[in-house]
Amino acid sequence: MENQLKKIAVLTSGGDSPGMNAAVRAVVRTSVFYNINCFAVYQGYQGLIDGNMKVINARGVNNIINKGGTILKSARSLEFRTPEGRKKAYDNLKKNQIEALVVIGGDGSFTGAMIFQNEFNFPVIGIPGTIDNDIYGTNYTLGYDTAINTVVEAIDKIRDTASSHNRLFFVEVMGRDAGHIALNSGIGAGAEEILIPEENRGLEQLLESLKRSEKSGKSSSIVVVAEGDKTGKNVFEIASYVEKNLPYYEVRVSVLGHMQRGGSPSCFDRVLASRMGVHAVESLLKGESNVMVGVNNDQMELTPLEKAIKGKSEINKDLLRVTDILSI
Ligand code: F6P
To answer: Do residues 299 and 20 lie in contact, with contact meaning Cβ atoms separated by under 8 Å?
Structure first.
């Protein structure tokens, strides 16, 4: 490798996601492999400011590959949004002779990392950790695969009671402003309708589609609604509108919430995290910085943080076509 780093640090930031621990494990063990001391920073950027960090060795990340959440904790630091806060963080890194920082988080965390790198010319590299899968530059973010499997299992359970009572269920899922979770888990769970921010087909079309389902003999239905969807004000308002206009349906709402953020990471997420952690440290050793590690067509790639932050993670429109056909 071109430049021999001696000390780096790793932190997790923003909303946690299954697979973050597997990524921390990979960063730490790859550091040990290349004779680099790795500091664990606790509580995200706030931990940098407070000096809440310590060297962690290969044994320090035993038995975490299968654990959801993050042993490093995560926090949203308002102080890191200030120049004074970032200066404190920089001083703490320099005090410990730390030469580079790995940030595992979402686009908000990468924005902080990019500002920090630009202000102090301090090498940073990002690993995309969020269940939303809404980051440009990677086909998958850490936690997304686990989250959609969690949602599918939950909707399968809801379908049992929906069909027992001939009910229409509206299920709200996470994803912030993206519809990836809703679209893929909706298809996987056989939802009749999927409402996502990227495609607003309107309430009338929803009614028509549900009427068709009922006429075709469907006694119960599932509608998956992404939390960022704009068809109505919110999932409750949409459900109430449908209930008023389709009196033959008994309607219920289920908001899955933060359970989507937890759980033991899937094998896919564990493998992805392991690959990303190794690639992050090896990229730093090659002198790369101000970039995000991603996987595209199963190849590890680097994307400038600015592009990862500003870019848009497009949904696969063909999945909408699949939904329309299969919900006949
Ligand atoms: O970004 C991950 C995410 O779970 C989003 O899907 C969701 O909108 C948001 O975090 C919730 O944030 P918080 O955990 O702060 O309530």
So the answer is: no
Active site residue 156: no
Residues with Cβ within 8 Å of residue 205, at least 6 apart in sequence: none
Q: What is the number of other CB atoms lying within 10 angstroms of the CB of residue 117?
A: 20
Is 293 in contact with 127 (CB distance < 8 Å)? yes
Q: Contact 291/304 with Cβ under 8 angstroms? A: yes
* Structural domains of the chain sorted by starting position, each given as residue range(s) with its CATH number in brackets: 7-143+265-310 (3.40.50.450), 145-261 (3.40.50.460)
Nearest alpha carbon, ligand 1 atom 3: 15
CA atoms within 13 Å, Cβ hemisphere of 29:
20
Mean pLDDT score across all residues of the chain: 96
Lowest-confidence range among 183-192, 206-215, 271-280? 206-215
8 A C-beta contact, residue 126 and residue 110: yes
Decide whether any atom of ligand 1 lies within 6 Å of the 133 Cβ. no
Out of 132, 134, 145, 229, pick the active-site residue. Answer: 132
Q: Could you tell me the distance, in angstroms and rounded to a whole number, from the CA of residue 189 to the centre of ligand 1? A: 22
Angle, alpha carbons 92-94-96 (nearest 5°): 75
Helix (H) or strand (E) holding 93: helix 83-95
Residue 142 clears pLDDT 90, i.e. is over it: yes
pLDDT at 3 over 80: no
